[in-house]
Amino acid sequence: MPRPVVVGLDGSRESLAAAEWAAREALRRGLPLRLVHAWEGGATAGEPGLPELAAPRYWSERILRGGLDRLGESYPQVRLSADQVPHSAPDALVAVGDEAELLVLGSRAFSGFGGFMAGSVALATVARVTRPVVLVRAHQRLESEHLPDAGGGPSVRTPYREVVVGVDPAHRCDELLAFAFESAAMRSAPLRALFAWRMPYVQSAAEAKVREAMGRHAERALRAVLGPWREKFPLVEISEITTEGRAAERLTHAAQDAGLLVVGRKIRPARVGTHTGPVAHAVMHHARCPVAVVAHE
Predict the structure, then answer these.
(1) pLDDT value, residue 274
(2) What region, left, alpha or beta, does residue 44 occupy, with left being phi > 0 and alpha being psi -120 to 50 degrees?
(3) 9 pairs with which residues across the strands?
(4) DSSP symbols for 11-75
(5) What is the C-alpha to C-alpha distance for residues 83 and 81, in angstroms, rounded to an integer?
(6) Is 133 exposed, middle or buried (0-12, 13-18, 19+ CB in 10 A)?
(7) Residue of 54, 44, 18, 293 lying closest to 144 (CA atoms)
(8) What is the pTM of this model?
(9) How much is the pLDDT for 119?
(10) In angstroms, rounded to a whole number, what is the distance separating the alpha carbons of residues 114 and 11?
(11) Nearest CA to 116 among 241, 9, 17?
């Protein structure tokens, strides 16, 4: 049985935008879409419970019904289902996310800065889910995934915007590259693979030679990592970018006009707090486009 695309709904603008994005992704992948709403009521719909839980249960059902009606009308080809999950939001989303093809969540924007404010729920979920998680902002629409038309206006008939993926050749990650190449292939979109490297401290007299040598090494290393994937996805147009600097800053800049940014997150042993890794954490907060965080060993 195929894994579904799962989206968390809470009635906010961000979660509704995430649900729309998830429906389009489910359609592209030919997968069912599961809508979930988490609440700490302890009893699911149809089961006896305390009277004071009637109101939150009602609102949970209303949120899911509204999502089903909205998506059913806009995306009739997508197989839809909806569930209430009687747990705290992070626990519920981790449980359903680990059974999903990918989990989609909404993220709020910083007022005035145009970046992500992932929030404690999203951060806690991303740090624990072992399947890919995509964060979507409230302004995302169908036309946001496409290039502007000849006049610079929004369009749904133009090609998809490019997919950007952050790559570290020193830590090969098949899950990350598979997700990025598949995402680009499904959209017939170009893929930009970026490797940001850092200069070690050297004496000033040798700095220029070391920088040149490291730049050439970075290009060779990135080319070697991407070689097998070029063969697997010969129709994907790919550009290789190596640049000196901090990975998070370079990726955020590279993804300014992208349709999707893909980054990795190393799976760590369970511990207190959220641990998404510095690059994933930074782009979750500052990238303007949807961000896919792919967990890997």
Answers:
(1) 56
(2) beta
(3) none
(4) SSHHHHHHHHHHHHHHHHHT--EEEEEE---SS-TTS---GGGHHHHHHHHHHHHHHHHHHHHH-
(5) 7
(6) buried
(7) 18
(8) 0.90
(9) 63
(10) 21
(11) 17
Alpha carbon distance 107, 114 (integer Å) = 11
- Alpha-carbon distances, residue 1 vs 31, 32, 99, 100 (angstroms): 10, 10, 11, 11
For residue 80, what are its two tokens? 């839809």
CA distance 249 to 83: 38
Tens digit of each residue's pLDDT (9 = 90 or more) over 93-116? 999 999 999 999 998 754 333 333
Q: Which two tokens stand for residue 133?
A: 């998680």
Per-residue confidence at 117, pLDDT binned at 50, 70, 90? very low
- What rounded mean pLDDT belongs to the chain? 88
The pair of three-digit structure tokens given for residue 76, joined into one six-digit string: 């009739």
User: Could you report the per-residue pLDDT of 164-204, keeping only the tens digit for each?
Assistant: 999 999 887 899 999 999 999 999 999 999 999 988 776 67
Structure tokens belonging to residue 276: 């998404």
Closest Cα to residue 241, out of 180, 291, 193? Answer: 193
Q: Strand pairing of 133-137 and 291-296?
A: antiparallel
Strand pairing class (102-109; 5-8): parallel
CA distance 220 to 210: 15
> Look-up: residue for tokens 């909806």?
82
For helices 174-187 and 13-29, angle between their N-to-C axes, nearest 10 degrees: 80
> If DSSP codes are grouped into helix, strand and coil, which group holds residue 136?
strand
Q: Which residues pair with 267 in a beta bridge?
A: none
For residues 225-230, give the mean pLDDT: 96
Helices (H), 80-237: 89-97, 119-126, 174-187, 204-232
Cβ atoms of 32 and 4 within 8 Å: the answer is: yes
